[in-house]
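Hey,
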Amino acid sequence: QMQLAESGGGLVQAGGSLRLSCVASGRTFNIYAMGWFRRAPGKAREFVAAITWSAGTTYYADSVKGRFTATRDSAKNTVYLQMNNLKPEDTAVYYCAADRLENWPPTNWFEYDYWGQGTQVTVSS
């Protein structure tokens, strides 16, 4: 089993920044990639970014490209999502997830086996 725990969400004004963290614990040895998804009220879960666990290769949704950056610290079993120039439309619950299959890029929610509980990000205009 694997557990994921996100943190770092909050309320920020448009144009501001937040950094989300996701700590993986338990059976982390077979992680291929970590993903970030979000769900806004009344909308479907949306892919945001993915990063491979070993090499740190990244992939982003067009809506966040150039504003969000995913990184990882393997020694700490932690991935981060640095979010800059936030917009009101970025408001959502953000989830991290672990993918054990070597498909790249893993942009679909069903490619992930483990999920965190989510952290709320609210961007005011």
